[in-house]
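--- STAGE predict ---
source: upstream dedup step, 1 unique chain passed
mode: sequence only
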Amino acid sequence: MLSGFHKISIDVFQHYQITSTKNLVMIVKEIKSFKRINLHLHTNVSDGALTPARLVKRAQEIGLDLISITDHDTADAYKQLPTSLLPLRIFPGMEVSSLHQGNDVHILAYGFDFNNAPLIELTEMYLIGRRERAIKMIELLAGLGIDIDLQDVVAVSGSRELIVRPHIAQVLVSKGHCQTKNEAFEKYIGNFKPAYVAKPEVSVAEAVKVIHGAGGFAVIAHPGKLAKVSYIDEFIAMGIDGLEVWHPDHYQWEIENFISIAQKNGLYMTGGSDFHGEQDRHNLFDDIPLPPVVIQSIEKMWQAYQCRLKSK
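--- STAGE serialize ---
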């Protein structure tokens, strides 16, 4: 079902030049116990501050066992990884945008085949759609007397040129139109503000279908941010595989509630800091206090991923 890491080794992790099954097994060899995990990290390929190489280097420096780079609607960071990763392990990932009843829902996709055609089509749709959205937002800002240039936004959007609202906010700050990114969202580009334009999105059901079709696991990101927690029951019916139970925006009672929901429904549990950069409040790269039950669940998902790999 999954050709993920084998495909990554050939087409994405180009520097590895893996030529034998022995080398492949060495890279993805089983670890009996993970201690330090962070499965929600962003690079400057989407809206993070660090390059993929620098992010991985830092993860190695602080002794993380397992990470996932989960840039928004793109996996291009995996083309820029350094040649040496061990003992660090990387769970291939992406944060996929979707929509449910008019509300944003982010889905963390793990362990998928990067070469899956429908998945590639989805990421390309978002790439083009976000650029068109940015153009419309810039036009609305101009109507408000705020002139910024598309090329200035593209310049801060990373190697993929995948434009997200924080990039527009960054330019608004650098041009002196706002003091902070938060101000930019609150005054102009936040949901339903004067210069807001909705991005093109697929439904949660369609996103889950694409992720599963690519052989991946579909995990609801930061469920505490959902417009309604009751949506989780609907997502379970759509076939989601897990919940990101630990997130820096979750209160302890929410974490306990999400753990309970996951256990009752046989879902995987994950956690990550949603790290974007040192200036972001999600600055918890170094120490993610995952409960033991979550670490155990991540180990099971990693093992299931390896089983899928080895079946190929």
